[in-house]
Design brief:
Elements: H1 12-24, H2 33-47, H3 50-56, H4 60-69, H5 71-95, H6 100-103, H7 114-120, H8 124-149, H9 162-171, H10 175-185, H11 190-213, H12 215-222, H13 228-233, E1 244-245, E2 250-251, H14 255-268, H15 276-296
Antiparallel strand pairs: 1-2
Helix pairs in contact: 2-11, 2-15, 3-4, 3-11, 5-8, 5-10, 5-11, 7-8, 10-15, 11-12, 11-14, 11-15
């Protein structure tokens, strides 16, 4: 039987204190121009690749290739988030003596999520980490269903079909995929790992915008290909403006902005010679080119 937390939802006073905390840490609650410009550069880099362009042109096989190419990233991403966010929270919980409730303000919560997150705070850092990873797990389910639709995974069990195993064996042993997985999933530097998470969010948003905004790509999604994964990552321009409603005590930050805030705080914990925005831009563009290389690579496989 599920128990209800005795702790109250976030109060208006705490909400205001949380905004002050973010400002004191030098973080942001509004999407900055430099980050939007960085995203647009990222999007431009992947837009002209073979697979992304193929999807926007309504090529069915390009959608299948897209699911194969980035499956290893999507499959492991929830675990990567848990590891990176737990490492981040544990470090700053200990060194800055911040309570888990204070650290919550770095994360995304809305009125509808308030009680659930208030309950997660009873479990401290682990509760926040688990709560933050829930959304990515749902995105993983959408991707699995897409691969079932393509005949790569089996229904219900999500085990690889014989054909899916053969295709993925070629794709996942290729140089671009190995390099991409290494930089996203095994990076030990905290700031770089968090920028890798930001880059992965950018890649998902960019692909979704490019496909949905294209007439032929969107038409193909509507005519049979499961579109749930693309829809949840589609961010129209107004999504980049953060709305705060002090009457409801609501602060809603998208994951890309949360990742940016965490990376910025991690970066500031060490003496650095380069400005964070400059460092982040250079690093994210490197990863953008790696996502693009994976989408442009000739995998020498036949898709019937």
């Amino acid at each position: 039987m599920q128990t209800v937390s005795n702790k109250p939802p976030i109060t208006l006073l705490e909400f205001r204190q949380g905004k002050l905390l973010i400002e004191e840490l030098g973080l942001i609650t509004e999407f900055p121009r430099e980050l939007l410009e960085l995203y647009n550069k990222f999007k431009d880099i992947v837009a002209g690749t073979k697979v992304i362009k193929g999807m926007s042109d309504g090529d069915y096989k390009s959608f299948i290739m897209f699911s194969l190419i980035y499956w290893s990233i999507v499959r492991t991403f929830p675990r990567t988030i848990i590891r990176n966010v737990k490492k981040f929270l544990t470090q700053f919980y200990n060194t800055d003596n911040k309570s888990s409730r204070d650290l919550l303000f770095l994360f995304n919560y809305t009125t509808t999520q308030r009680e659930r997150i208030a309950a997660s705070l009873e479990h401290g850092v682990n509760g926040i980490v688990k709560d933050y990873a829930i959304e990515e797990r749902s995105h993983l389910e959408y991707w699995r269903e897409m691969m079932v639709n393509f005949g790569i995974l089996q229904p219900s069990s999500y085990r690889l079909t014989m054909n899916g195993a053969e295709l993925l064996n070629v794709v996942e042993t290729s140089e671009p995929i190995i390099k991409l997985n290494r930089i996203i999933h095994t990076e030990s530097d905290m700031c770089n790992a968090l920028l890798g998470m930001l880059s992965t969010e950018f890649a998902a948003i960019a692909a979704s915008e490019i496909v949905i905004d294209s007439e032929k790509g969107n038409q193909l999604l509507s005519s049979g290909i499961l579109r749930a994964w693309f829809d949840v990552h589609y961010h129209a321009a107004d999504e980049y403006h953060i709305s705060t409603d002090e009457l409801k005590g609501e602060l809603h930050l998208p994951h890309d902005l949360i990742n940016y805030n965490m990376a910025r705080l991690a970066y500031s914990s060490h003496a650095r010679k380069v400005d964070f925005n400059e460092y982040a831009a250079d690093y994210v563009i490197v990863i953008a080119r790696m996502f693009a290389a994976a989408a442009d690579y000739d995998y020498q496989i036949n898709i019937d």
